[in-house]
Write a structure and sequence with these properties.
single chain; mainly beta; two-stranded antiparallel ribbon
């Protein structure tokens, strides 16, 4: 489990109580922008629907 990683996407199978992420690793990519400047400009590729 990734330590101290929080996520509020409760429709993800890696989501646990209190917004903890239980994924072994996290993979995040830029969202159509070559260099992200905020979290809104990224996509979490670790997401898997419950």
């Amino acid at each position: 489990m990734a330590k101290d990683v929080l996520c509020e996407v409760n429709s993800c199978r890696h989501w646990a109580n209190e917004n903890h992420c239980t994924a072994e690793s996290i993979f995040i990519v830029n969202n159509q922008i070559k260099q992200a400047h905020s979290s809104a400009e990224t996509d979490c590729k670790t997401f898997k629907s419950k």
